[in-house]
Amino acid sequence: MGFHPVLLLYSLIQWVLDKLLSPTPPPPKAILGRPRIAVIGAGLTGVSSASHCVGHGFDVTIFEAGDERSLGGIWSRVNNTSGLQIHSIMYRFHPSVKWVAGYPDRQQIVSQITQLWKKYGLQERTKFNTPVKSTRQDRYGRWIINENPSLGTFDGILAAVGTCGDPNMPHMPNQEDFKGEILHSSKLDGKTAAGKKVLIIGGGASAVEALEFVVHTDASTTTVLARSDKWIIPRNALVDGLLALNIFGQETVFSWIPEALLKRFFYRDLEDLAPTSEGLFTETPMVNSDIFHQIRDHKAKWLRGDIVRFTEGGIIFRHRAKGVPKGGPGREVEVQGDMVIMATGYQRPSLSFLPNEVFQEPYQPPRWYLQVFPPEHMSICCNNCTYVNAIGTVGNYHIGIYTRFLLMFLMDPLARPQEFWMKRWIDMTTFLKAHAPTAAFDFFTYSELLYWFVFCIAINPFRWKWAPFVFLGIGSSLPKNIVSREDQIRNGLGMKRRQLE
Ligand SMILES: Cc1cc2nc3c(=O)[nH]c(=O)nc-3n(C[C@H](O)[C@H](O)[C@H](O)COP(=O)(O)OP(=O)(O)OC[C@H]3O[C@@H](n4cnc5c(N)ncnc54)[C@H](O)[C@@H]3O)c2cc1C
Ligand SMILES: NC(=O)c1ccc[n+]([C@@H]2O[C@H](COP(=O)([O-])OP(=O)(O)OC[C@H]3O[C@@H](n4cnc5c(N)ncnc54)[C@H](OP(=O)(O)O)[C@@H]3O)[C@@H](O)[C@H]2O)c1
C-alpha cells in the first residue's frame, strides 16, 4: 500500500480522539454501579451507547433479538459489497473507532462494532436471542423487561432498534408471471448480473448501491425504476458537512442556493433527475458521485414512473414526465428484464414494547423531547430509532451525547426534565418550524441537533456542571461529586428525592 498523507493524518486525528475521549473500559468481571440501563439492540447504536455507560461506571445489559451473528445490527445483514456512502469522518459512532478508509465497507464496519463490544467487556453483558416484547415499571420505578424480573431490573431504557428491520418486499401485480429471479437489494451476495437485463425497483440509497453492484458485474442492461425523485449529493465530506450546517433544519429562503449549485455543477446535463417539488431539506438525500457517470456512459438508465404490472419478460412501466406526481399519468412501456432487484427498503422496527402512554398524541414519536425522550418517561432514550429524514448521519457523536443526557437525568434529579417542560420544548420546536414543508420532527440537520443539545443544557443552570460530560464524556467525577455535595445540603434542608444510585 502506498503512502497517503491524508489517510495518515486521518489516523492520527482518530488516535488523538481515542486517547482524549474514549472512556476507560471497566476491568473484567467488574461490578458496576447504578443506574443500570437496559440497552435494546446490538447494532452500532446499542453497542456504542452501552460502551459509554460501562465506561462511565454504569451497568448495562444488552438485549438483542437475533443470535451472535446479529452483532452489528443492519450491517450484519447486508451485502458484502455494501459500504458507507457518507464519509467515515461523519460515522465515528464512538471515540475508539479507527477507520482505515474514507468509505469503509460492511466488513470494516462490523469489525469496528465487534472490537468496541469486546473492548468494553460487553460480551458478558449481552443477551442474544432475546427480543424485547414489553417493558413496564414496578412499584419502585424500576423497569422490568418482558415481565421477567430475572432478566434484571433497570433504572433506564436505551432503545437502539434502528430504522432498518426486515427487508420490505411489496407484492407487485402479476409478479408470479415473471420468469426471472426477484431478489431484495440486501441479498446480492453470491449473485451475478453478468449478461443479464437487470431492473431495479426503488429510487433510494439501496437502488444506487444495487446499480453500482450490477454495473460492476457486467450486466447487459441496467434500468432503475423509481417512483419518486430524491436529491443526490456528492460523495464529498466538505460538501456534505456544509449542507448539514443548516441550523434551521428546514427549507429556508436561501435553500435555492445549494439546490441551484447542485444542479449546475453536479447534476449538469442530468438536471431532469433532480426533484422539482421537494426541496433539499425535506428528505434524506442519497450520497453518491458515481451513478451520474454510469448514466452518462449509457451503462444504466434511470426512469421515473410507476410499476403497472409484471410480465413474463419484464415490467409494464408508466413512465412519467418531470413534475408529474407519483401515480400520475404517463406513457406505458414494457421494460425488458430477466432479473429484478427490489430496492424497496426495510420495515421499520417496532417500538411497541414501550408503555402505551408514550405513543399518545400529540407527543408520539418522533415528537419527543430532543426527539428521543418520551415526555412521560425521561428514563427512556430511543437513541437513533425515531428519526424520519435528515441531512447528517446516523452513526456519529450524537449517540454518546444522547446516552450521557440519559445518564445525567438518571443521576441528578435537579438536571432532570419535567414532563411539562419537555412538552413545552416540543411545542416550541414545532412553532419554530411551523413553516417547514415537513412536520417539525420529520426532518433535521446535524447542526440543528447540536443546537437542540446546547439549548437544553443552557436552559437549566443545574445542567451547566454536566456540560463537559454530556458533550465530550469528560469530567464525570466532578459533576458526580457536586451532586453528592448538593445531596448533603438538600438532605440537611430536609429535601427528599427519589434515590436511584
Ligand atoms: C446498506 C446500508 C447502508 C447504510 N449506510 C449509511 C450511511 O452511509 N450513513 C448513515 O448515516 N447511515 C447509513 N445506513 C443506515 C443505518 O441503518 C445506520 O447507519 C446504522 O447502522 C443504524 O444502527 P443501529 O444500531 O441504530 O440500528 P441497527 O443496525 O438496525 O440495529 C438494531 C438492532 O436492534 C435489534 N432489535 C430490533 N428490535 C429489537 C427488539 N424488540 N428486541 C431486541 N433487539 C431488537 C435488531 O435485531 C438489530 O440488531 C445504512 C443502512 C443500510 C441498510
Ligand atoms: N450506503 C448507504 O449509504 C446506504 C445504502 C442503502 C441504504 N441506506 C440507508 O438505509 C435506509 C433505507 O434505504 P433504502 O434505499 O433501502 O430504502 P428507502 O430509502 O426506503 O427507499 C425505498 C425506495 O423504494 C421505493 N418503493 C417502496 N415501495 C415501493 C413500491 N411498492 N413500488 C415502487 N417503489 C417502491 C420507494 O419509493 P417512495 O420514496 O416513493 O416510497 C423508494 O424509492 C435509508 O436510511 C438509507 O439512507 C444507506
Quick structural overview:
With 501 residues, this protein is an alpha/beta fold. The chain has helices at residues 5-21, 44-55, 106-119, 205-216, 237-243, 256-267, 291-296, 398-411, 419-432, 446-458, 461-464, 467-472, 477-492; strands at 33-40, 58-63, 126-127, 135-137, 143-145, 153-154, 156-159, 181-184, 197-201, 221-226, 232-233, 286-287, 301-311, 314-319, 331-336, 339-342, 380-382, 389-391, 443-445. Helices cover 29% and strands 17% of the residues.
Radius of gyration from CA coordinates: 24 Å
Envelope shape: globular
Q: For the record, what is the CATH homologous superfamily label of the largest domain?
A: FAD/NAD(P)-binding domain
Task: Bin the strand percentage.
Answer: 15-25%
Strand tally is 19
What is the level-2 CATH architecture name of the largest domain? 3-Layer(bba) Sandwich
